TrEMBL record:
<dbReference type="InterPro" id="IPR050764">
    <property type="entry name" value="CbbQ/NirQ/NorQ/GpvN"/>
</dbReference>
<dbReference type="InterPro" id="IPR027417">
    <property type="entry name" value="P-loop_NTPase"/>
</dbReference>
<protein>
    <recommendedName>
        <fullName>ChlI/MoxR AAA lid domain-containing protein</fullName>
    </recommendedName>
</protein>
<dbReference type="Pfam" id="PF17863">
    <property type="entry name" value="AAA_lid_2"/>
</dbReference>
<dbReference type="InterPro" id="IPR041628">
    <property type="entry name" value="ChlI/MoxR_AAA_lid"/>
</dbReference>
<feature type="domain" description="ChlI/MoxR AAA lid">
    <location>
        <begin position="80"/>
        <end position="151"/>
    </location>
</feature>
Length: 161
């Protein structure tokens, strides 16, 4: 069932996934419902990459990543441009701006920086916004997609230098 707009806005990202390969699907069906089924990460052949302590440190480093005023303005300008785009019936909310800022901070921390750069925002804008906006009927008739529309908005919004 499609979620209402207010609920969609609570998700940080929307990623699109393909179906598993035939071999992966065979393994899924074979293991489903069995006592020895793949119920843990190790059952999928995946080993943990961080400890609980390392994860807590990573979360703390995200909160410490600085957002300069020009980066905040860049995020807000992208969000506001979604609201005035004729291709979008519904633009992104203030919650979308906050989510994009958090995602950009996380990207900076993952890259070992304590500050956000415009490329962090650009990289994460599509997954952070694609589920928060709605194409206008006219844009749909013209064959436009949400990702194309957002990519155009991001490209046209001046990034800080």
């Amino acid at each position: 069932y499609p979620l209402p707009e207010a609920q969609l806005d609570r998700f940080l990202f929307k990623h699109t996934l393909d179906y598993p390969s035939r071999e992966e699907e065979l393994a899924i069906v074979a293991q489903h419902g069995t006592r020895t089924g793949m119920k843990t990460a190790q059952g999928f052949g995946v080993d943990p990459v961080v400890s609980a302590e390392e994860l807590a440190e990573a979360v703390a480093s995200v909160a410490e990543a600085r957002l300069q005023d020009d980066i905040i303005a860049y995020i807000v300008d992208i969000i506001r441009a979604t609201r005035t785009s004729p291709a979008l019936e519904t633009g992104a909310s203030p919650r979308a701006a906050a989510a994009l800022a958090t995602a950009a901070r996380a990207r900076a921390a993952l890259d070992g920086r304590d500050f956000v750069i415009p490329d962090d925002v650009k990289l994460l804008a599509l997954p952070a916004l694609r589920h928060r906006v709605l194409l206008s009927p006219g844009a749909e008739i013209e064959g436009k997609t949400t990702d194309e529309t957002l990519a155009s908005i991001i490209e046209q919004t001046a990034a800080p230098r």
